[in-house]
Write a structure and sequence with these properties.
Elements (H helix, E strand, L loop, with lengths): L5 H18 L36 H13 L10 H11 L4 H24 L7 H13 L1 H25 L5 H26 L2 H4 L3 H20 L2 H22 L2 H9 L1 H17 L5 H6 L1 H5 L1
Length: 298
Amino acid sequence: MKFYPMRKFISLLLSLIVFFALTGSVSAASPTLSPTATASATPTIEPVPSPVPDLTQKTQDTLGPLEELLAKQELGPVWPTNPLKYAIRGSVEAGVPANTIVLLLLLPVIATVIAASRHLIGLRGFGIFLPAALSVVFIATGPFLGIGLFTLIISVSFVVRFILKKTKLKLQYLPRAALLLWAVALSVLGVLFLAPIINIPSLANVSIFPILILVLLAEDFTRVQLGKSVKTAFSLTFETIILALLSYLFMTLKPMREYALLNPEKILLILLAINFLLGKYVGLRFMEYVRFRKLIKS
């Protein structure tokens, strides 16, 4: 099998990125002017809209711009270049939420970002699925609240394991995991009970979905801690958060969402080509260049 050298690989990857930039210019939708509010005796306080729409929720702030974008798109012939566009249009008209379609189209994007970060930069993390799921958690909760809940769950998991180790309680794996989940649920409940006191509305509105994803990540942290060391577990966890934040930035980028929705065929083909090139690359990663720079220079 023939493998691409570093220089040739980077040039091909840059060519794909330039092609993506040139073909992906999506004109921004013109802002709609809200009707003039009628004067009323009692002034009402309008809620401040979130700067980043939550793609995991079916709200007007999320669905409205996406559906308007689809309505303005001019479709050409179905074959051979537009079958997915017609499928998306028909699904949305039948009641499928546009935000769900966008999330599904963006999942291969962030999977490619995570794979490129692993093979080109050297970030490891807990595989590819957990960073992707954690990025969706950050969309649902916000990055600061998501990292805070994650830190809480990891800390509780670490403390419970430390107590079990010090007390020398010999428990089977599943009862131990159930005890860990019991402690995590109790700690998250305590934080939710404190939400009205510390006045964090986003914390009071958090759903069970991001908490479950964070518990899964805590379980992987515990498994790595058992198999290797605490230092390795913390290192992988930190790199997982970095990958999740990077994926979060891609998923919340408005041009990326619009391009994925309006050009599904192009973006899937581009991702297919990029992953093929990534699979061919066997050179040193960026962190390895930094780590062995003295040896390479000599």
